[in-house]
Design brief:
There is one protein chain. The chain is an alpha+beta fold. It has a single domain (about 5-180), classed as 2-Layer Sandwich (Beta-Lactamase). It has 7 helices and 5 strands, in the order ααββααβαββαα. It has helices spanning about 5-15, 20-35, 60-70, 80-85, 105-115, 145-165, 175-180, and strands at about 40-45, 55-60, 90-95, 120-125, 130-140. It has a 5-stranded antiparallel beta sheet. The longest helix has 21 residues, at about 145-165. The radius of gyration is 15 Å and the shape is globular.
């Protein structure tokens, strides 16, 4: 963990506590991600019930996020399936170790690659009520610079996970969701 991490985390928490909507949350995440040299992120909160809608806050290309949600890829995404188990942050890519991908999962990775989303580091989040979310930082290729940054901050990002567990992760009305940050 670097010396700048405590200040970065404090700034991030302050911005989140002042958040009143998804735009504020996205801006807080973008600021933190940029400071960590992890430029692309997505926060996906899964619904409590299978018929509910997931909540996605991201700076991924909007055509990709719309396509992902429209096709309900959260139901087949191996990264999300792994995040449902909780635990430590984990790296991923189209060559997930120990996972044989189905044709639907391979299609998901192939389509994501068209939007320069090919690998990443995901932080599983499971709150006190058992609600599941995933905070992902992604890159267009598993180059050594991304891997070094992800490795350098993995422990710190794992500690950030504990902060996220106190946030409401399920899709709920905006007023309920954002007042919980205050």
């Amino acid at each position: 963990m670097t010396k700048k991490m405590p200040l970065l985390f404090e700034t991030f928490v302050e911005k989140l506590s002042e958040s009143v909507d998804e735009t504020d949350f996205r801006d807080a995440m973008a600021g933190a991600a940029t400071a960590l040299d992890l430029l692309t992120f997505a926060y996906l909160a899964l619904p409590l019930q299978s018929c509910g809608e997931p909540k996605l806050i991201s700076n991924y290309p909007p055509p990709w996020t719309a396509h992902y949600l429209q096709n309900q890829y959260q139901k087949v995404d191996p990264v999300i399936m792994r995040a449902r188990c909780g635990g430590c942050p984990f790296p991923w890519g189209s060559d997930l170790r120990g996972v044989e991908m189905s044709p639907a999962q391979q299609k998901l990775f192939d389509e994501a690659a068209q939007f320069s989303i090919r690998c990443g580091l995901t932080i599983p989040i499971i709150d006190r009520r058992g609600c599941v979310a995933a905070m992902t930082f992604a890159a267009d290729k598993p180059n050594s610079a991304f891997l070094r940054v992800a490795e350098r901050y993995e422990q710190a990002l794992h500690s950030w996970r504990h902060f996220f567990t106190f946030m409401p992760v399920e899709s709920c009305p905006a007023t309920e969701q954002w007042t919980a940050f205050r």
